[in-house]
Each structure stands twice: as C-alpha cells, then as structure tokens.
Amino acid sequence: xxxYLGSKRLLVPHIxxxxxxxxxxxxxxxxxxxxxxxxHALKAAGRRVLAxxxxxxxxxxxxCYVQADREDVLGDATRLVAELGALKGEPGYVTRTFxxxxxxxxxxxxxxxxxxxxxxxxxxxxxxxxxxxxxxxxEAADRVDxxxxxxxxxxxxxxxxxxxxxxxxxxxxxxxxxxxxGQAFGLDAVEAAARLEGDLAYLDPPYxxxxxxxxxxxxxxxxxxxxxxxxGVARKRVDCRxxxxxxxxxxxxxxxxxALVDAVRAPLLVVSFSDEGYLARPELEAMLARRGHxxxxxFDYKRYxxxxxxxxxxxxxxxxxxGHLRNTEHIYVVGEGRHAAAVAALPALGSPPET
Length: 355
Hints:
The structure is a single chain. The chain is α/β, with parallel strands linked by helices. The protein folds into two domains: 1-68 and 174-206 and 245-345, Vaccinia Virus protein VP39 (Rossmann fold), CATH 3.40.50; 70-172 and 219-233, no CATH class. It is built from 14 helices and eleven strands. The strands form three sheets. The chain has a seven-stranded mixed sheet with strand order 3-2-1-4-7-11-8, sandwiched between helices. Strands 5-6 form a two-stranded antiparallel sheet.
C-alpha cells in the first residue's frame, strides 16, 4: 500500500484484537478509510466493511481493497496489468506538472503514468476493475516518487527509488468476506455516519492542520484523471484551498467530532486519535462517554520520517527544529448498553512493534 501519514499499519493487529474481543461484530463502518489498511485487514478477518472517505483517491482505494472481490476481478486485473505495464511513455499533464514544474517523479516515469492513465480511461471498465487498475498505478508511482511520504514537497535531491522504472503490480485484492460483500462510499463523514449502519464504527479522523487532500493531491489528480490548475512549489490542485475539512481546524473540530459521534449508527465505536490532535484526551473521553462505557489504550511510537528529518522552506533550507520525535496514539473503545460489558472486559494490549 502507499506510504501514508497517519497509517495504522503498526496498530492494525491491536485493532483486530479489540474487534475480536467485542463479540459478534459482523459489519464494520470505516468512516475515514484513507488507504483502507484497516478495512482491508478487517475484510481479511471475515468482516463486512463499509468504507467511506470524501477524497476520491481514498474512495478508489476502498473500492479496490474493500469492495472488489478477488474471485470477480483477479483474472481481468492480471491480464490488464500486464497489458498496461508494457505501454511506452507518452508525456502529458502528470509529466509537465509533477516532473517538469515540480520534481516528484523522473520524467520517464511521469510519461508512463500519463500513458497508463489514459489507457485505463479509454477502456471504460466496470468500477471495481477500474479501481484495481488505478490502485496498481498509484502504488507503482509511490514506489518511484521522491518524497518523505507526503506530497507537500519533494526532496531537494532525487531519492534513490526515483531512478527506478515504474512497475505495475496487481494489488492484494481479497476474496469476499464471510460476513458479506463490502462497499465503498465517497460521502462526507457525518452524512455517512447517518446513512450507514453496522455493529461497530471505526473512526480515524484528521486531527490537526494536516490535510490529507493536500498531502496526497497527486493521487487525487491521477485517480480523477483531470488536469486542474495548480499552485505553489508542490503544484497542488486549486481545490486543496476550497475543500477544507473542519477536522483540520482548532475552531471546527469540536463541533465536527461531536456531530460525528452523535450521528454514528452502531452500538460499538473504536476511535483512533493522536496526542498531536486538537482535542485533548479528557475532552474526547467526555464526548465519547455520552455514547457509553469508554476504555482507552495508548501506544507510544516514532513520528513519521518527515518529522524526524526537520522543517524546510520551499528552497530546501532548514528553517525550524523538530519539537519531538515520538507521539502517543490513543485507541478509544466505546460500548452502548449491553455492549459496555464487552468493552470493560477487553484485556490489556501490548505495545506495537517499532519499525
């Protein structure tokens, strides 16, 4: 899966243990699905997952990793990945914008991305199969980019991986979960919370000023297949300025989080939230306690690599110091009514491994 700030890769085993310990959980609503790492793991464990994210690249990842089933798409995906992977480069918007005006990719790889994206569009495929191919493309691009993992900026000198050749691979699409077929949605989180119903809702909202659209604007552009006007050194889409989330503001996050928690249609909630977020633990606990009994599990681990390197201006000059190299991720587990006993009975969890 793509490199992703806020990825729950290290916490996934603990999230699975929590869900397993809560008894009969068949359908899980994932309201901020991101890369679908959590949804993919829950599907592998047999759960039916309803994955939602308002960013189109994330909805596409969910359509690949949660909604599409291996038995339906693998044969065609394997054939088409081989066909698309053999295409020669044809420079277009991606090459001009992200290789020449910026330096996220080598031009040879930008031209391949352009050619493959056009070919996918020309095939007018079923949405699930198209999603698998688009995910194959952005994952291939991710393996040859020149960033620290976010697209706010590119490295001053080329990353070693950027010199490699773009290589398409079939994503790890899973067979249908025993609890039923998953679905992907592209709704506002509060709207999704009000519309979707399940046994458990997993919430991993943005929690500070870092916008996922701004951090992964290239994936949004590749998946949409559009050619938006851009701004800044990173050549961000202009709608990064317009599509603002209240979760990314101190002024808006409290009301947004409260509305979300109130709207959820599930008796069990699992919430991931970092100590780097705008809501402090006591405030979030009090908010969640309105829904039922609350347990909190806390994990300390290294911050993402970009934070460890330092703070630089657009000219590549170091302009600030890193305040801290570690942070704490809290997992809040909430149970209503008869489910409160299951939450109270959850065993303690060990620390996630360091990598």
